[in-house]
């Protein structure tokens, strides 16, 4: 229950909007850090790949120099051993070549060591950047969770308060509608069947006089007119009863009852064509389910005719293993869902009825493009068990 104090919904919206703006801004900053880290990560990856290629080349060069150095040393040993067999120039050349190769090998190994150290440093930096990126993405995910919570749950506090007021208004509207419906039924019975029955009573009193004064033929004509009046009165009574609760539901089920109802609607609304289709085999449902489905179709069709001015209406029912889908579509004037929600107690009533059945309702409509309403009602578990 809500207190009698007035809740400033606008202030709540301002607070929530500021919270969301702050968190969104922080999320953007974290995202920028993450992207900068990712960019640095890619640059370091390229540098690491380049260093690895250089290491590979310098290892090959080092292996070649090592092999050549060994040969040069063997040559120097040979020249030194047989010193008298070689000229001074050959001895100097062997010595200088071995010394040069040794120096180059030493420099190459130093460069290889430096490159390996740089490679190891790059790999450590890459791992650190990767951890930073992972943490940033984790924080962004957590921020998204918070934002979703604020925008879907807490953000809907004002909407919940507004809906509570709408439901309260809806309850008052229901009471008013009940009184209005009682007055309508009273007026329909008074102006329709009651007047017809009074007319039957009056004309039945005249039949005997007509017989005496004008003969059998005229009396038979009066009886024929009387029968016509009685038939019309019976039709009106049946229509009123049908509007209250179609008796055929209990006996025949939802599909035959809807066929008869939609056919009757077309009779009372010349120029309106209702196209009814059903897919798969009909399942008999508990009474409250069938009544609810009937009322959902009834309300949708009435809205299409009364508000949508629709010349064509399509009603389709599809029986699935776990649910029944009901589509009511028209080519009428349509409406703006944003502005209609506050004032359409018919839509609220349908939503309440669908919620009681734990189903869903989807409305697609826009001005000039007709309306499509899809109801999905899960079948009772015992019905599903039988099917399975």
TrEMBL record:
<dbReference type="InterPro" id="IPR003594">
    <property type="entry name" value="HATPase_dom"/>
</dbReference>
<dbReference type="InterPro" id="IPR050482">
    <property type="entry name" value="Sensor_HK_TwoCompSys"/>
</dbReference>
<keyword id="KW-0378">Hydrolase</keyword>
<feature type="coiled-coil region">
    <location>
        <begin position="34"/>
        <end position="68"/>
    </location>
</feature>
<keyword id="KW-0067">ATP-binding</keyword>
<feature type="domain" description="Histidine kinase">
    <location>
        <begin position="184"/>
        <end position="381"/>
    </location>
</feature>
<dbReference type="InterPro" id="IPR005467">
    <property type="entry name" value="His_kinase_dom"/>
</dbReference>
<dbReference type="Pfam" id="PF02518">
    <property type="entry name" value="HATPase_c"/>
</dbReference>
<keyword id="KW-0808">Transferase</keyword>
<keyword id="KW-0175">Coiled coil</keyword>
<dbReference type="Pfam" id="PF07730">
    <property type="entry name" value="HisKA_3"/>
</dbReference>
<keyword id="KW-0963">Cytoplasm</keyword>
<feature type="coiled-coil region">
    <location>
        <begin position="98"/>
        <end position="139"/>
    </location>
</feature>
<dbReference type="Pfam" id="PF05384">
    <property type="entry name" value="DegS"/>
</dbReference>
<dbReference type="InterPro" id="IPR016381">
    <property type="entry name" value="Sig_transdc_His_kinase_DegS"/>
</dbReference>
<comment type="function">
    <text>Member of the two-component regulatory system DegS/DegU, which plays an important role in the transition growth phase.</text>
</comment>
<protein>
    <recommendedName>
        <fullName>Signal transduction histidine-protein kinase/phosphatase DegS</fullName>
        <ecNumber>2.7.13.3</ecNumber>
        <ecNumber>3.1.3.-</ecNumber>
    </recommendedName>
</protein>
<dbReference type="GO" id="GO:0016301">
    <property type="term" value="F:kinase activity"/>
</dbReference>
<dbReference type="InterPro" id="IPR036890">
    <property type="entry name" value="HATPase_C_sf"/>
</dbReference>
<keyword id="KW-0902">Two-component regulatory system</keyword>
<keyword id="KW-0418">Kinase</keyword>
<keyword id="KW-0547">Nucleotide-binding</keyword>
<keyword id="KW-0904">Protein phosphatase</keyword>
<dbReference type="InterPro" id="IPR008595">
    <property type="entry name" value="DegS"/>
</dbReference>
<dbReference type="InterPro" id="IPR011712">
    <property type="entry name" value="Sig_transdc_His_kin_sub3_dim/P"/>
</dbReference>
